[in-house]
Amino acid sequence: MKLFTIVITLFLSSIFMIGNSQNLTKGSVAYYEAMRVAAQSKIDWVKSTPSEHEIATNSNWYEMAENNVSKFTKYKHLAEKSSTGTYFPEENNNRSMNSDPEPGDVCADAIPFYSEVSYDYPCATDQPNSPSEYDYGCLNTTPNAAWYYMHVETSGDIIMSLSADNDIDFIIWGPFHETTCDSLDLSSENIVDCSYSSTNEETPEIGPGSSEGATTGTSGEYYMFLITNYSNSVQNFTLTQTGGSGGTPGLSTRLIDNLCGSTTTTRDTWLSCNVIDGAEDYEFFFENSDIGYSETKTTSAVWGSGNGHYSTMRLYYIPQILHGYTYNVRVRAKVNGTWGEYGSTCQLTLDVQTTQLQSSQCNDTITTSSTMLYAEPVTYATNYEYHFTNSALGYDETITSADVWGIENGSRRYIRMYYLPNIVYGQTYDVEIRAKVNGAWGDFGETCQLSLAVQSTHLQGNLCGGNAPTSSTLIYATPVTYAQDYEFWLVNEAIGYDQTRTTSSVWGEANGARRYFRMYYMPGLQYGYIYNVRIRAKVDGVWGEFGEVCQLSLGTNYQNSFNNENNQSVTIENTAELISYPNPFNSSTNLTITTEDELRFNMKVVDVTGKIMEEQEIISNEQYSIGQELEKGIYFIILTNNSGLIQKQKIIKLK
């Protein structure tokens, strides 16, 4: 859409820049040819680009662009005929290049005749007779030609008045089904009316009163009309329909079909009406009687007095147009200074674009109320309203971005969740959002679910999977935003240990946010064992879920007592070496514990939760194959005797 906007708004300036960039003499044949080629190239490019072609078709851009091609073609022709080799339309009847031109001097440049328009144009002078390929009937000469075409919409006779200060003549051919001169048979058989009299007042007619006694015009037919300035006088001629029951199309028009009865959500929408041939301006009339609204805007007011023939404009050019309302829209055209009647009424609704939580947050879980929540953007929005509900809690609250950031900053499309009153952790909320544009609130968009969970936590740093040398060691939880309390849960299934302790029970309710304590605060801990440690936090009175399991051993560097085969007590100090190879492994790993003496040990394989997967008695200095029945994952070998922990080693099974 952005690219198309550039194309349509810079259309004229770009082709004029091409003419100037080639250092061409303004008004020359080469100048108009360069601009004609540029205009046609622009059309060809839009047609070859699917996305641009669709927009151009819907906005009547092609009619506007092709109108320019035909104008440049005509001005090139007039420059070729000029004695100076140049042509400046602004010097002819003070008309600009892009306004409705005077009648063409050749058939191909004929302009439309409308029954409700009175035409007044300067006659051409010193121009030769028209081309000889046509049959001009009663006209012995055809100097200073002015060509029109008429499209009959209402069947019946059409009686006109043609006058000038001095002698003027005319001829009419028809009926035809098109206006392409190369395809028309402008022969004697198709002459409808003709006058070569010496009078300066003529009465052209399509009907029984014509010179040929022709039948009346029928809806859908076309007629070609040639006027000549026989006297070669510097004068104006006037042409008006004065009677008859037939007529050409009126100057009324309407919104194009895909806009009539439509709804849009942005004032960037292009308004386009059906094109009236030869129109020099269009007027769009918007009305809503319920709110007392009535405004008009012309295309010439938007694009400039010379570009009023463009039949399109953006909706935001309509003064004080408001979102949230339906408007009655009528359009009319201006031809040769005459405004037609407004066409049929179309309804156009300018709604407010719907919005919702941005896609990355819709149906998501957040772990802190300080998270920034974003709405999908709405063009020209001045405020956003967030609606949170939870029927189970009876929760129903709204807040606007203007409430948070101030009215002047209501266009900010984000808030933090903690701005909502009484928001509760551990709950899921239905969230709807709507936007305000030009003082009108739109509808709430799609409902998204948003869960506010308490952030998980676990042992901090190297304590996870590490060792606490003594029970006075401080153990820490990873921090949780806004936490009021932490609960530590230590488990060792082998010795039947299962205890919890909160930081508030250690430091007092006022200091529960301290995320640490010394291990001796846990009742019944024993040296030489590994404990599975899990931690959870409390935020706004709600406990979260326990986080990941960390294994923590208590006091492995000390003297251990063992029993030999004779049940004698043997004391060794860090002399047992546990070896597993390969590690990591695929199917099994070989386990050996080496000691100076032959000793017996209890060997357990546990998973990361502390669950015992294998257990057997092993003898030092012998090899054992383990792990065949294990699933892919991380495990720990724990080697103990009746005095406690001797060794711990991590093993990894790959598949």
Task: Give the key terms.
655 residues, mainly beta, Immunoglobulin-like, 5 domains, seven-stranded mixed beta sheet, six-stranded mixed beta sheet, 8 helices, 36% strand, elongated, disordered N terminus
Describe what this molecule looks like in 3D:
This protein has 5 domains: 1-87; 252-350, Immunoglobulins (Immunoglobulin-like, Sandwich); 364-452, Immunoglobulin-like (Sandwich), CATH 2.60.40.10; 461-554, Immunoglobulins (Immunoglobulin-like, Sandwich); 560-653, Macroglobulin (MG2) domain (Immunoglobulin-like, Sandwich). The chain contains 8 helices and 44 strands. The radius of gyration is 46 Å and the shape is elongated. The two termini are 53 Å apart. Residues 1-13, 90-100 and 557-574 have low confidence and may be disordered.
Give the secondary structure arrangement, pairings included.
Layout: H1 2-9, H2 11-21, H3 29-48, H4 50-58, H5 61-81, E1 111-112, E2 119-122, E3 145-151, E4 158-164, E5 169-176, E6 191-195, E7 201-202, E8 205-206, E9 222-228, E10 236-243, E11 252-253, E12 263-264, E13 270-272, E14 281-288, E15 293-298, H6 299-303, E16 312-314, E17 325-335, E18 338-339, E19 346-350, E20 364-366, E21 372-374, E22 381-390, E23 395-400, H7 401-405, E24 414-416, E25 427-437, E26 440-441, E27 448-452, E28 467-468, E29 474-476, E30 483-492, E31 497-502, H8 503-507, E32 516-518, E33 529-539, E34 542-543, E35 550-554, E36 560-563, E37 569-572, E38 577-581, E39 589-594, E40 600-607, E41 612-619, E42 623-626, E43 633-641, E44 644-653
Parallel strand pairs: 1-3, 12-19, 20-27, 28-35
Antiparallel strand pairs: 2-10, 3-9, 4-7, 4-8, 4-10, 5-6, 5-9, 11-17, 13-16, 14-15, 14-17, 17-18, 17-19, 21-24, 22-23, 22-25, 25-26, 25-27, 29-32, 30-31, 30-33, 33-34, 33-35, 36-37, 38-39, 39-42, 40-41, 40-43, 43-44
Helix pairs in contact: 2-3, 3-5
